[in-house]
UniProtKB/TrEMBL annotation:
It catalyses: L-seryl-[protein] + ATP = O-phospho-L-seryl-[protein] + ADP + H(+); L-threonyl-[protein] + ATP = O-phospho-L-threonyl-[protein] + ADP + H(+). The keyword Nucleotide-binding applies. Belongs to the protein kinase superfamily. STE Ser/Thr protein kinase family. STE20 subfamily. It comes from Perkinsus olseni (Perkinsus atlanticus). Its EC number is 2.7.11.1. SMART domains: S_TKc. It is an enzyme of class 2 (transferase). It comes from the Eukaryota. The lineage of its organism: Eukaryota, Sar, Alveolata, Perkinsozoa, Perkinsea. This is non-specific serine/threonine protein kinase. The gene is STK24_4.
Length: 351
């Protein structure tokens, strides 16, 4: 990957292919993965800090490229549905640049560029590497993600990869749900059948849907009251797993299957719902997790129902407004993330 993206370096300037006079100044690499790189840049036309996703169209293949284009569509739809709970989406465009691997300059590479809001903060999973969240802070995060999911699901969009790594916590305490790369836009009453997500966070119906959909004889019914197919309530199970992850430092079953995460599928489908060490949680917290961990999706509450039921006591006003006052531990975490030393805890989280 470094070779194909070697022209993108700090100080590089990229002009938008859209008719908007935007020029992006590259600062530093934020991360990279199977689909490309993400850079922190400045939009010189507005002096706005942005996160720029750069994808080599030839390297990812047609199917993956279609998936990324779907991500663009869903991110724009999610932003319109979720407001500040989703990063702003600015623009997307394709651009041909000289191939850095061909010195003659006669060969060009087509890149897909996505410009999105830069969130000055840290992913929730990095935050809990330093210190587990107490229930008050966790309630604040859960409350905001429930609001995001309520809006998202009303637009018939399943996120399909809810986990701490896809939740950003800004310095101001803003909670942002990110990464719509595996989201699916559903027609009303439709059922998704694809096998997508991250093992420990997957709902039971997601795991069984792909393998059993062809065995259902077209009826969609499978043993145990489950269906071949899943809907937005799969995200609620994943949110419950994330709530456990934030308090315990890992999702259920991770200690047993840490080296073989894909072995957890059978456990999630056949075993009773996760119980963990429930003594560590308050009654309202256990009540909330119980609603999330209903094995049959028909028995599982929606985001809207969770916000209205008595479990909402767990989401107290104190919790809702506590995190913005604690932004200093986010700043401190970012400073020490660059160091090898990982044993310093952010004491403010547990006070």
């Amino acid at each position: 990957m470094p070779g194909q993206y070697s022209q993108f370096v700090p100080g590089f300037e990229l002009r938008s292919a859209n008719d908007n006079n935007r020029i992006y100044l590259f600062h530093h690499l934020l991360g990279e993965g199977a689909f490309g790189q993400v850079w922190r840049c400045t939009d010189l036309s507005s002096e706005t800090e942005v996160a720029l996703k750069v994808v080599d169209c030839n390297a990812v293949g047609n199917e993956s490229l279609k998936g990324i284009e779907k991500e663009i569509e869903l991110t724009a739809k999610a932003r319109s549905a979720m407001g500040k709970l989703c990063p702003k989406f600015y623009e997307a465009f394709r651009v041909d640049l000289p191939d850095p691997l061909v010195p003659s300059g006669r060969s060009f590479v087509k890149y897909l560029i996505m410009s999105m809001e830069f969130i000055d903060g840290v992913p929730l999973d990095k935050l809990i590497e330093f210190s587990l969240l107490n229930e008050t802070v966790c309630a604040y995060v859960v409350y905001n993600i429930l609001l995001a999911l309520k809006d998202l699901h009303e637009k018939h969009i399943i996120h399909r990869d809810i986990k701490a790594a896809n939740i950003m916590i800004g310095k101001s305490g803003r909670v942002v749900l990110c990464d719509f790369g595996v989201s699916r836009l559903l027609e009303k009453e439709a059922q998704a059948l694809t096998f997508t997500g991250t093992p420990f966070w997957m709902a039971p119906e997601v795991i069984i849907s792909y393998s059993l959909s062809q065995k259902s004889g077209g009826s969609g019914q499978v043993p145990g009251g489950m269906r071949a197919g899943y809907d937005c309530r799969a995200d609620i199970w994943s949110l419950g797993v994330t709530a456990v992850e934030a308090c315990l430092g890992h999702p259920p079953h991770a200690d047993k299957f840490a080296r073989m995460p894909h072995m957890v599928y059978l456990t999630i489908v056949k075993d009773p719902p996760p119980t963990m060490d429930m003594a560590k949680f308050s009654d309202t917290y256990r009540d909330f997790l119980g609603h999330c961990f209903q094995k049959c999706p028909d028995d599982r509450m929606t985001a809207s129902q969770l916000l209205k039921c008595r479990t909402a006591v767990f989401l107290t006003p104190l919790a809702v407004f506590s995190l913005p006052l604690r932004h200093e531990w986010i700043t401190e975490m970012k400073e020490y993330e660059k160091d090898v030393v990982k044993d310093r805890l952010i004491s403010n989280v547990n006070t």
